[in-house]
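Deviations from the work plan: none for this task. Representative record:
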Amino acid sequence: MSVTTTTARTPRRARAGRNRRLTLLRGALGLLGLFLVAEVVSRSGIVNEAFLPPASVVLMRVVELLVDPAFLGQVGATLQAWAIGLAICIAVSVTIGVLLGSSRAAYSASRAVIEFIRPIPSVALIPLAMLVLGNDAEMKIALIVFSTSWPVLFNTIYGMHDVDPVAKLTAKSFGKGRAATLFTVSLPSAAPFIFTGIRIAASVALIVAISAELLAGASDGLGRWMLDAGATGNRPDLVYAATIIAGLLGLAINFLLQLVERRFLSWQPALRQTDKGAS
Amino acid sequence: MTIRPTQQAPADTSWVGVARRPRRDFRRVREFAIRWGVLIALGIVWEVAARLAGSLFFPPLSRVIERFVELWLSGPPSSLFFTEAVATNILPSLLRMASGWSIAVVLGVLLGVAIGRSRVLGDFVEPIVHFVRAIPPPALIPIFLILLGFGTEMRVSLIAFAVIWPVLLNTIDGVRSVETLHLDTGRIFHFDRRKVFFGVVLPSAAPKIFAGMRVSLSVAIIIMVISEMVGRPDGIGNVILGAQRTYRMADMWAGILLLGILGYVLNALLALVESRVTRWHRGSREGVS
């Protein structure tokens, strides 16, 4: 980079850097403020310490739990169900989505069915899944697949409908067959939509996994662990700590997927546009 | 949850493929016939398969519908044929959901406007918002049980807490993308703060807010059911869970059917309201771009 361009850019970049630092600083202050309020509310007895343990105690428990192998094993069980469920969901719904998205007739025939099955909340099926599949990982995975399929399916269909017809015709006029067109034109063009669906599905899957564990009395997992700590163990500090860890888990998953999206789909103009406002 | 590749696409994609252009009537009729035909065919398949399999867990559809009517629609004409169970189980559930959702919408819009309009406030609270939002709502059940007990307060606040995020984030986003031209115009005409809020900011952000409200509503049903599966036994969620525990399979399926219908009707209602309130939006956007 030549000297002139550096000097020309420096002030603006410096200002951007300062703004960024200010944003970070304010964010950190906000978190610190929340921590202090929670601490004071608990210590001063506004809320009984048995209900709301001091924030410092909870944070210590978080650190302890993060190195506790037994606890991490439970988190691992939850994450395993999450990963398997999500993988099945992606394989199934992307395939179905591509089929429904490329055929008008199949789409209108399936719409009524989809519209009637989709509003059924996945948790309503927990009792059924408990009966049919017991309280093991299979039950969790089945529920995850059911509830996460919708965002992926709809986004895939939407993405397939959004493919530029000119691009498809161009591929056709270059003598490409249906399959080749699908893999070189339609799928890449629908990829950002599909990925948005997957990102939504990933956070829904975590929610469903934990609710299945909490409500269906699954044999293991983070939700089960929290149930034990809260109801039988009577340890609110552990419950709060586990909740914070669940939040961190959600953040980590979201962050990772965003990273993947930036890395592999950054060429997409649609994505570059929304990068700013999206959260 | 609110990321969309294009601005116009709301977070809920149930309208995917709905063509807005006018169509000849017979095509619409045919489409209608296909949709319902497939649905009825599916019902018949379920009926036949269930009768053939004779499984305890999957009763025939006719039996489920029969129980559905017996449970909730066989009351006296004076109460529009609704049974007492509707008043004791379904209505309280819906009330809790409605109040939790309304609280979330009001708080979410107010907070969202505040955060969206003030950069400084946004900087302070956004990390908190993102962290708290990332906590899966069911993971909060133990905490809400500890803090608020086993009754209505716990349920309503759990619903409100879980469904506020789509509204909040969409409102922030909507308020931040209000066109400066519109705000400047307001300033030129000496609008006071209230007029700016109700006349410029809120209408501009309305489409996004509605998208958030719709996502919230579907989440609210889910959380309502979850919250009724713990604590004091009442509500629709408890009907399903109770039926399962006593092996009344037809009742359980009737409950699942009821939730499906509720979800469908609520979503359709909100879509109707949305299209009325934001009717101006589509036209104006098309005119500009």
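The first helix of chain B runs from residue 25 to 53.
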